[in-house]
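Continuing the series of single-chain predictions for the mutant panel. This is the parent chain; the variants come on the following pages.
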Amino acid sequence: MASTADFKNGLCINFNGKPCSIVWFQHVKPGKGGAFVKVKMRNLESGRILENTFTAGEKIDLVSIERRPYQFLYKDDSNFHFMHNETFEQISLLPEMVNNPDLMKAGQYVEMMFNADEDRVLTCEMPPFVELEVTYTEPGLKGDTASSSALKPATLETGAEIKVPLFIEQGEIIKVDTRTREYYERVKS
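Parent structure:
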């Protein structure tokens, strides 16, 4: 059992029966009335951002969370299959539990958050950036645009489609931001 005095970013608490991670908090001491704590937290099961106000000193339940390294093996008709990097234990997850599954290729390392008390997977997070090959894109012609930020569609080796700058050509390796699904940079070979 903890209290609102123990709040810090990243702390995992039980809120309305769901595990949540504190993203932002602010302790407020108004001139009149009691102190309170405004909190923004991410529901670890759904990913939604929730806001709540706690009375200062209110008791809260902590949730024990473990982060474990896994490697993506393959996808079948209904699930994604992963292997723990140290124990070689294999698990399978439904597609909705994986962030941006179409940016993941075989051998990709991910980090899974587990509710340690129930030994249950909460989320599967990819690294912030992945390197993927462009398998198809139209050639960009010089003079096609008046601005320097023109983008064209590109298909990646995993089948995902994103927008890339005009100078990117088929066969090039690019770095993609998995949080925004945007082109980040070209990988130098």
